[in-house]
Amino acid sequence: MSSTARPPVIAAPSPAEETAVEFARNLARDVLGPGAADAEARQELPRPVMSRLGAEGLTGMTLPKSAGGAGLSHVASLAVFDALAYGDMAVAFALLCQNSAARSIWLRGTTAQHERWLPGLLSAKDIGAYAITEPTAGSDPGSMETLATRSDGGWTLDGVKTLISNVPLASTLVLSAKTNADAGTRGMSAFIVSADAAGVDGVPLRLHGSRALPVGQLTLRGVRVPGDAVLGAEGEGFKIALDAVNWARTVWAALAAGVAQASLDGAIAYVREREQFGRKIADFQAVQFQLAELATDVETARLHGYRAAALFDADDPAQIGAAAMAKLTAGEVAVRVTSKALELLGGVGYVVPSPLERYLRQARMAQLADGTGNIQRLVIARSLG
Predict the structure, then answer these.
(1) CB count in 10 Å sphere of residue 138
(2) Is the CB of residue 245 less than 8 Å from the CB of residue 370?
């Protein structure tokens, strides 16, 4: 990456893309935001919402309309994710996982795999999950222990995947396994697996943060899959997973911006009404300066995401470093903005059911999911050339 590199072109949204963003904003305002506290109390992802998103093609945002997707650019899809996260980041994150599974199958799958798996994912009849992380293999995929061994014209899968979003709700799994245990990341392959296959066991994990998002652990014991379960070519699993992770990191800029914007808007509304020492809190210059800094932070995170997404649209290899920059910046911004917003509300912001305490918990996910801040710094450093 070089300071003399040509900046990416961020195209204006088409009328259809503007319609998709407006749909997301309305859904966030009318459904997601009002229902977020109840979804957390029930610790349950609202399936009817996922079906509505599927009906709009938003379960496959960047897939062409001819395939059942929304036909959005990567940039426009970020605006949709941002709008949804403003209402409920748990739903937006679950949708990211759904999109990741559908996107990988679309990009790397055969026609038969498209016909077999995409209709269910795009309609949200089937919930998708992308399973890479293991108890001993997170940031270092080369240490992956899940094995795929040839058997009777197919494969047998054995291993454990953990911290997998949408599990155990997911019915369609895109997962990575070693087909050559001695070849490191070059020995990884990707598989499409039905969660109801014999030997697949998914159990939920309890999250510190976003409680409506299903996250769980998968155990694979002698899971038999046919030969055509391989996604892409044998040995391409790391490449397929890396593309999915890089795209997810870009989307995190939008998710973080959405929850940070919701926090900031809540704080602004409060300080404009709350009076102390005979004045509105918003009239104090110290408060105004804090709000100005927070607003700048949110836009910084948002623009980092748009830059990385534009590089995806241009198929520019600089997307890898840009995605890591977006993820790093957005994670730190989300935590900083939600923390400062809560401080502006004082004790009121810390009392349930104030949404600020939920925003703060969810913001931490933006720092941890799809690679911690230090991993992003490592990726950025390597991208400098």
Answers:
(1) 16
(2) yes
Distance CA 285, CA 291 (A): 10
DSSP-assigned beta bridge partners for residue 165:
215
End of a domain among 235, 251, 285? Answer: 235
Rounded CA-CA distance 84/215 in Å is 19
| Same domain (yes/no): 244, 287 | yes
Comparing CA positions, the residue from 183, 185, 179 lying closest to residue 155 is 179
CATH number at residue 23: 1.10.540.10
How far is 242 from 248, CA to CA, in rounded Å? 10
What pLDDT, on a 0 to 100 scale, did the predictor assign at position 5?
A: 58
Domain count within the chain:
3
- How far is residue 41's CA from residue 344's CA, in Å, rounded to a whole number? 26
The residue segments making up the domain with residue 286 are: 238-383
Q: Given this model, what pLDDT does residue 305 score?
A: 96
Prediction pTM value:
0.94
* Contact in structure between 356 and 263 (CB atoms under 8 Å): yes
For 157, the 3-state DSSP assignment is strand
Cα Rg of the chain (Å, integer) = 21
Which residues 6+ apart lie within 8 Å of 303 measured at CB?
Answer: none
pLDDT digits (tens, 9 = 90+) for 135-179: 988 777 778 899 999 998 899 999 999 999 999 999 999 999 999
Picking from 96, 33, 79, the residue whose alpha carbon sits closest to that of residue 262 is: 33
Write out pLDDT tens, residues 41-89. 888 999 999 999 999 999 999 999 999 999 999 999 999 999 999 999 9
pLDDT at 126 > cutoff 90: yes
Please report where in the chains the tokens 């397929």 appear, as a residue. Answer: 240
